[in-house]
Amino acid sequence: MIIWINGPFGAGKTTLAEKLRERRPEFLIFDPEEIGFLVKLTVPKPASGDYQDLALWRGLTIAALREVRRHYSQDIIVPMTLVQAEYLDEILDGVRRVDDQLVHIFLTLNEDLLRHRIALSLQSIKACHPRLRVTCFSMNWQVSAKKSKC
Predict the structure, then answer these.
(1) Do 79 and 29 touch, CB atoms closer than 8 A?
(2) Quick check: 133 pLDDT over 50?
(3) Phi, psi dihedral angles at 129 (to 5 degrees)
């Protein structure tokens, strides 16, 4: 099984993945962001600056999951935000061809809590890198506050 954990930045995807692995140490955690870092170092950035806009990243993410599945039978957890609907469809369709037992989880949280977590994250960056100038910006995200049963 492949468990894709999606949701807004700061929603707790990586934390949930780590907690799941604490309960099931045999689970593998695959982070496509690492592929994004490699792609950003290798090819020109897209106009948007977002490596998800590169077909190369999307293809490599699917190919890497295919190889992990080929060599390891354990369940794989993928904590990764996919915002663009067409990219979500492209990647999840590709992942289903790798493992037809795909579970897609979308985490939601209260907008105030999300803004608080992002602010804490910015404070943490400033504390770790005091010379780094961080430009704060206003976000106008639509975040669902609906509770879901897990």
Answers:
(1) yes
(2) no
(3) -130, 75
CA distances (Å), 86 to each of 20, 22, 69, 121, in order? Answer: 28, 33, 24, 29
Which residues are CB-neighbours of 124 under 8 A, at least 6 positions away? none
Name the DSSP letter for residue 121. Answer: H
Q: Which amino acid is at 44?
A: P
Here the tokens at position 37 are: 């870092």
Question: CA dihedral defined by 88, 66, 96, 80, rounded to 10 degrees?
Answer: -30
Q: Amino acid identity of 32?
A: P
Render 24-66 in DSSP notation, one character per residue: -TT-EE--HHHHHHHHHHHSPPPTTS-GGG-HHHHHHHHHHHH
Q: Compute the distance between CA of residue 56 and CA of residue 62 in angstroms, rounded to an integer.
A: 10
67-93: per-residue pLDDT in tens? 999 999 999 999 999 989 999 999 999
pLDDT reported for residue 114: 64
pLDDT per position as a tens digit, 3-62: 999 998 888 899 999 999 999 999 999 999 999 999 999 999 999 999 999 999 999 999
At which residue do the structure tokens 């663009």 appear? Answer: 84
| Predicted TM-score (pTM) of this structure | 0.75
